[in-house]
Write a structure and sequence with these properties.
Largest sheet: 9 strands, mixed
CATH superfamily of the largest domain: Vaccinia Virus protein VP39
Structural class: alpha/beta
Number of strands: 11
Helix content: 25-40%
CATH architecture of the largest domain: 3-Layer(aba) Sandwich
CATH class of the largest domain: Alpha Beta
Distance between the termini: 53 Å
Length: 354
Amino acid sequence: MMTTSELDILRSEEVRAAIEQNLERNPADVALDGRVPHSSLVATQIKYLQRARRKLPSLYEARCIVPPRAFEQSSSEECAARKPIEGDSVLDLTCGLGIDTIALSRRFRRVVALERDEVLAEVVRYNLSLLGIGNVEVVACAAEEYLSVAKERFDWVYVDPDRRSDEGRKLVCLEDCSPNMVELMPSVCRVAQRVAMKLSPMFDCDEAFRLFPQSEVEVVSLGGECKELNILTNADRASIRIALIGQGEWSYEPEAMNLKPTHATFADSEWRYMLVPDVALQKARLAVAALSPYASFGAITATPLCVSCHRYRCRVGSMPLSMSSDTAPRSLNERCEAWVSRFRSAIRGSRSMV
C-alpha cells in the first residue's frame, strides 16, 4: 500500500517532471538511473502509467497517481462507462482507485465515494482535481461505519466488493467479500431504494437471482473476455441482460437460461460455418435462447476440429457472437469469408513447412 510520504513525493513538482521526462523509458532502466530523483518510486509510477494508457486513458492523459494494487483491482474505463444507472445522487461504497466513481460523476449530479484507506482516498481526491471533476465527495471511512450514521437518501447505492482475502486469495461467494452485501443490505436499503453491485465474472447467474429475485442481472464482456456480472436490485421485473461492449445489448427472461439444444444429429456437409457465441452468452447459458431467431442448431458428430459442441447455421444480422477482432463493422457473411480466407492461408503455410 502507498504511504503518506510516498504520496507527498509523487505530488511534488520535481517528481512529476521526472515522470513526464522519462515516461517512454523502460521502468527498469529508470529505477537504476541515479540522475532520476526518487528513481524507484518514479519507475513504479511510469510502469503503471504505461499500463494505464490503454486500460485507464483518462488517468494516463492527466498523469494521475496510480497505486499498483489499486490499479490491479480497478475496472477499465470502458466497462465503467457503460454502467446503466443515473440520477441525482449516488453513494459509492467502494471507491478504490475511483474509476467507477469517475464514470458515475458523469451520470449523477452528486457522488459520495467511500474509501477506508485514507491514503488512497487522498490519491483519489488529488486525481479528481487533475481531471477537473468537482461533484465527488470522497469520505475516508468504511461502508459499515458510514451507513451506521447516514441520514441522507440517495437515488442509488453502488458497490464493487473487494474479492481478495487478506492473504490475497480470490473470493467468489458474496458473503465472503468486503463489504458483505448480504449482511449489509438492510442498512443499504435505509439510504437508497436501488443498489447496483459489480461482482466477479465467476459469480453464478442463478445464485444472483436466488439472492436478489427481483433484479436485473447483467453479464458484461469486452473483446471476447467476460469482465463482470452486475446485479441491479428492485427492478420492475426480473431479467438477464447480455452486454457486449461496442456491439450491443440483449435482454431475456430468466426462464430463458439453461435451454438445451436438440440432440438430433445432422450432416456436417450441409453447414458452412461454425460460430462461437460470445463468452457473455456462454456464461449466462443463453446461447440457445439468443441464437434461435438467427440460427438452426443441433448436435454435431465428432470431427478433428470439434468434439461435443454445437454448430450454428445463421443468417446475416446483428447477433451476440464473438465474431472477429476487426474493428470495422461488416456483415456476418463478410466476416465469415475473411475467417475462411485466413484459415486457408494458415493451412497452406503449415503444409509448406512440412
